[in-house]
Amino acid sequence: MTKLSDTKRGNVGYILKINGDRQFKKKLFVMGILEGEKFLVENVSPMGSPIVVNVKQARVALRREEAENVIVDLS
């Protein structure tokens, strides 16, 4: 288990848990970031933010602060 913010380009895994308040979880839900979903890290900017992930064939960019609340399992 690790935070999405600690992943590197090319990592593939599953979203295990999303921490945060209800509003934050709803925001990620709308973007397709749900517990149990498979993801691919497409890009991490040199400064670590944003992190671009592919979930359900959609590209989603998250700020580092947001990605720190997403716990993932890399496979």
Distance N terminus to C terminus? Answer: 10 Å
Could you give the order of the helices and strands?
A: EEHEEEHE
Total number of helices? 2
Helical percentage: 10-25%
Sheet with the most strands, sense and barrel status: 6 strands, antiparallel
Order of strands, widest sheet: 1-6-2-3-4-5
Question: Low-confidence runs (pLDDT<50, min 5 residues)?
Answer: none
Percent range for β-strand residues: 35-45%
Category from helices, strands and their pairing: alpha+beta
Give the overall average pLDDT: 95
- Shape call: globular
Strand elements, count: 6
Task: Supply Rg.
Answer: 11 Å
Describe this structure in words.
With 75 residues, the protein is α+β, with helices and mostly antiparallel strands. 19% of the residues lie in helices and 41% in strands. It has two helices and six strands. It has a six-stranded antiparallel beta sheet with strand order 1-6-2-3-4-5. Strand 3 and strand 4 form a beta hairpin.
Characteristic key phrases:
globular; six-stranded antiparallel beta sheet; 75 residues; alpha+beta; 2 helices
In short:
With about 80 residues, this protein is an alpha+beta fold. It contains two helices and six strands; from the N terminus they run ββαβββαβ.
Please render the helix and strand layout as text.
Elements: E1 2-3, E2 12-18, H1 22-31, E3 38-44, E4 51-55, E5 58-62, H2 64-67, E6 70-74
Antiparallel strand pairs: 1-6, 2-3, 2-6, 3-4, 4-5
